[in-house]
Each structure stands twice: as C-alpha cells, then as structure tokens.
Request: fold
Amino acid sequence: MKLSSRTFLLSADDSLHALASAAFMRMLRQEKLARLPDFAGQRVRQVSSVVEMVDGKPTRTVHRTFSVLNIDADGLLDIARLNSQMVARMEDGLWSPRSRKQGTGPIVDAADRFVARGGTWEPDERLLQAIEAASLGQLRCPRARVVR
Reply:
C-alpha cells in the first residue's frame, strides 16, 4: 500500500481542474514561472486529496482538505495570505478554548478563527461525489493551465 496526493482547483461553475503537484510546488515557492492565467484575479477553491494506492490503483480517499486560494491579477498565488490562513488553522486546532487566555468580560479574541475560516470551504454532497470520483481516477478532469 502507498499513498498518493491529488490537487484540484474548482472554477466558478464547479468544474474540477487537476493541478500537477510539481506546478503547485512552484507556485508555493513563488516562482514567477508558475502562473494560473485562467484563474487570475480570483479566489479559487482548492481540494487536496490523499488516496490509498494498492497495486498502483487508487482504492480510497484517506484525507481531504478544502482551501481557498487567492490568485492575483497576474495569476500568481498570494503566498502571504495562504500562510496566514494555514497558521491560523493550525493555531485554532492546537488550542482548546480553555487553554486560550481568558480575558475579562464577554469579549473573545476570535481573529484567528475568522482568518482560518476565510481560507476554507465545504462542498455539497453532489460536489463531494465528483471530487471523490476525480480523486480515484473515475472522473477525467482537464488540467489547470500553468504558464511558465
């Protein structure tokens, strides 16, 4: 058994576009050669799936994350915003409400939770089924065009 990752971007009409892992890594390294012109100036929903592979065939999805990526007008990924959302998600997951500093009065500092939620989304059942099928190779998706 092995694990494999799959990355998809969703266009405004909910169509899935496969994004090569190497291209996404170039985007994360902020290489000017890794732009997404078809998604320029948009907030784009992303799905990252980890699938179990048996004898080279995907058998089941073992983990999924749903993120929102901000793509600037030139088609470059906004890394600063992605990093702040990831840190906020991590901090929100690590700290229980009781372990947070308790202030006086009814005001709670929820800034991290708002930042974290701004970078996530949840698919409806129909879309979740399409994501599952694409992750398992049962649904063909066009590749996201990455310009070098």
In short: Residues 79-94 form the longest helix (16 residues). The longest strand covers residues 57-70. The chain is about 30% helix and 25% strand. The mean pLDDT is 83.
